[in-house]
Amino acid sequence: MRRGWSNRCVTLQPHQPEPTAGPPRASGPADGLPDEPPDAPPDQPAESPDDSAGAPVGRRLVLSMLGLGAAGLVAAPALQRGLESFLGAAADRDPTGLTGLLPNGGGFRYYSVAASVPRKGPDDYRLTVDGLVDRPGSYTLADLRRMPRTRIVRDVQCVTGWRVPHTAFTGVTLSRLLSAAGVRPGAAAVRFTCFDGEYSESLTLEQARRGDAMVALDMNDEPIGHAHGGPARLYVAPMYFYKSAKWLSGITVTSEVRPGYWEERGYDIDAWVGRSNGRDDAPTV
Question: Is 59 helix (H, G, I), strand (E, B) or coil?
Fold first, then answer.
């Protein structure tokens, strides 16, 4: 199998590389460097009991630890966002994809198949819908956010093995966008392209019309950031995360399924979690 680094899983795709008999199994999202203290220096003397000072020092130590713990709880969300931002920026400038090996507190890995990815925002983001449709269209972020949206909470499962539980995605279902465009007779599939200029994905028309396939705008109830594939990405809840293309820019209705970036490199086109790619992960549904 040819290997590479992907758009797949961040989403923080993914993303986030995403098989011969099956893709390699990787460590879970909580895995990382062991959280063990370094050994004490060999010349460090052993502490001796001191009845006169032991109790006050112990109280001060406990109170200090409690204070640090409380401060950590308050600072944790900001620290997490900072770490995600740092890793996302590093991944943007890392053509080797090695930053995708680094976990962050959210459990995602950062993958991209492009050396750099432009940033899009409310002023310049556009999502086009074209191909075998009666009414091709182009949507701004504001257009998408004005449409009825669906919220789904599922585990995210990467084909390389890591899993992020109970992740909320909110967005516009593909079925709504396809209905608005008017799918023509003879259409059988949908192709997705991305503004990184490299990544692509495909679904059958039946798969795309599922209620759990969407153009996602929010993750965990916040706008999807650049590192997670924002401002809009594909999200297909019951499939491995490489199907949920980041930095989504185009939806094209076609007459047949065209293999996406990772399918061309050996991964399954029908990527149902636990029923494809030689893996037996628990389904995300």
Answer: helix
Positions of the chain with pLDDT under 50 = 1-6, 10-57, 61-66, 68-84, 86-87, 90-105
CB 242 within 8 A of CB 262: yes
Neighbours of 49 (CB within 10 A): 6
Tokens 């308050």 appear where?
A: 74
- E strands, 147-199, are 150-157, 163-173, 189-194
- Mapped onto helix, strand or coil, the DSSP state of residue 70 is helix
DSSP string covering 214-227: EEEEEETTEEPPGG
CA distance 163 to 150: 22
Which two tokens mark 203?
A: 């679904």
User: Under a CB-based contact definition with an 8 Å cutoff, are residues 227 and 10 in contact?
Assistant: yes
User: Quick one: 66 exposed, middle or buried, by C-beta within 10 A (0-12, 13-18, 19+)?
Assistant: exposed
Q: How do beta strands 233-236 and 213-219 pair?
A: antiparallel
Please tell me the pTM assigned to this model: 0.67
Summarize the chain as % helix, strand, coil (round to 5). 25, 20, 55
Cβ-based neighbour number of residue 191 at 10 Å:
19
Cα distances (angstroms) measured from residue 56 to each of 52, 60, 64, 65, 68: 9, 6, 12, 14, 18
Cβ-based burial of 117 (10 A; exposed 0-12, middle 13-18, buried ≥19) = buried
Give the model confidence (pLDDT) of 66-118 as tens digits: 454 444 444 444 444 444 454 455 444 444 343 444 444 456 766 667 778 99
Q: How far is CA 13 from the centre of its chain?
A: 4
CB 213 within 8 A of CB 201: no
- If we measure between CA atoms, which residue out of 231, 92, 251, 118 comes closest to residue 173? 251
Per DSSP, 24 falls in state P
Q: Facing residues of 131 across strands? A: 253
